[in-house]
Specification:
Layout: H1 12-26, H2 47-81, H3 95-117, H4 123-132, H5 140-161, H6 163-170, H7 178-181, H8 194-215, H9 228-243, H10 253-268, H11 271-274, H12 279-302, H13 316-320
Helix pairs in contact: 2-3, 2-5, 3-9, 4-5, 4-12, 5-10, 8-9, 8-12, 10-12
Length: 340
């Protein structure tokens, strides 16, 4: 009990003493950890991290194309080889299965690489982005080399997986002809003329590039975050189901050249290159590249308003007044952490 002064009130010193006592009774000590002023976050915690930073984007492109081929060539092998009763008791799929397989491969390939390299997984896309959207030209060679190597590796994995089924389908161990080479790279139907083959690949790749440019345009109708691979799945499914029969819709030089190189290495020989007077060069490589450039040019010339495109670079009068178009492209086209 607090003693009172003569007038019945506690003295000042007594009130102060009571307050200090109550504060001690109701106060508990907490251990608070303060960050070490010498603790820093680094991008390179070890030597391997430094090397990884140098190869991360090319490896992402390699892995993306590898995934594309594993699913795409894999579904080709399953559907075609299973038509032989000695390989499977019944056919395992149809042409629609092939369309779905390549669409899934595209989506998976972009998903695993998009946030790191942009998920091009296609030299035609890389060249179009470098031409129209400021993608660094210095990265183009290593991107394309990585994409082709990814195609070789993906085809090799599928070939090793279906090696025995291919032997049975071909009629004996080690027999290799174009009828199974077409499971890995593209060959046109017999009635198709050279001009028709070129036009088919040109058209399909132009459509592909228009959609890629549209889905990275902030002022058009870009998909919600994380859904770029899904949109590409729908696009590739549509191209395959509607336009893919005549030339097997390469629409990607790495998707054709990588597996074609693999078939030449494992016993198919030079026939994969001499088919239709160097068909491998002018149809599944040159036509997609030119089609991609044409599709990108059409979109940027008539629809895109961002400063990234060469079609929207300021002229002399605008430069004199320090005027330029707004930035309208979503980062990391066609995919990526900021874009998907």
């Amino acid at each position: 009990m607090t003693p009172l002064s003569c007038d019945g009130t506690a003295t000042r010193s007594q009130r102060w003493s009571d307050a200090m006592r109550k504060e001690k009774e109701h106060t508990h000590t907490e251990h608070v950890e303060f960050p070490d002023v010498h603790d820093h976050v680094t991008q390179f915690p070890n030597t391997w991290a430094r090397y990884r930073a140098l190869i991360r984007e090319p490896v992402a492109e390699f892995l993306g194309v590898c995934m594309l081929i594993i699913f795409g060539a894999g579904v080709d092998c399953q559907v075609v080889l299973s038509t032989n009763p000695n390989v499977a008791s019944s056919p395992k799929g149809s042409y629609l299965s092939i369309s779905f397989g390549w669409a899934i491969g595209t989506a998976i390939g972009v998903w695993v690489s998009g946030g790191i390299s942009g998920g091009h997984i296609n030299p035609a896309v890389t060249l179009a982005l470098a031409t129209y959207r400021n993608f660094p030209w210095k990265k183009v060679p290593i991107y394309i080399i990585s994409q082709v190597l990814g195609g070789i590796m993906g085809a090799a994995l599928v070939y090793w997986d279906y090696f025995h089924a291919i032997d049975i389908y071909e009629g004996g161990p080690g027999v290799r002809t174009l009828k199974t080479a077409s499971l890995f790279s593209t060959y046109a139907l017999d009635y198709m003329t050279n001009v028709s083959c070129f036009f088919s690949e040109f058209l399909c790749t132009a459509i592909l590039m228009i959609v890629v440019f549209a889905m990275t345009d902030k002022r058009n109708c870009p998909p919600p975050s994380g859904l770029n691979p899904l949109l590409l799945f729908i696009l590739i499914l549509g191209i395959g189901a509607c336009l893919g029969m005549e030339t097997a819709y390469a629409i990607n030089p790495a998707r054709d050249l990588g597996p074609r190189l693999l078939t030449a290495m494992v016993g198919y020989g030079k026939a994969v290159f001499t088919y239709r007077h160097q068909y491998w060069l002018w149809c599944p490589i040159m036509a997609p590249i030119l089609g991609g450039l044409a599709g990108g040019a059409f979109y940027d010339a008539f629809l895109f308003t961002g400063q990234e495109s060469i079609f929207n670079k300021p002229n002399a009068a605008a430069r004199q007044r320090h005027l330029h178009a707004a930035s309208e492209q979503r980062p990391h086209a066609p995919s990526g952490a900021e874009a998907v």
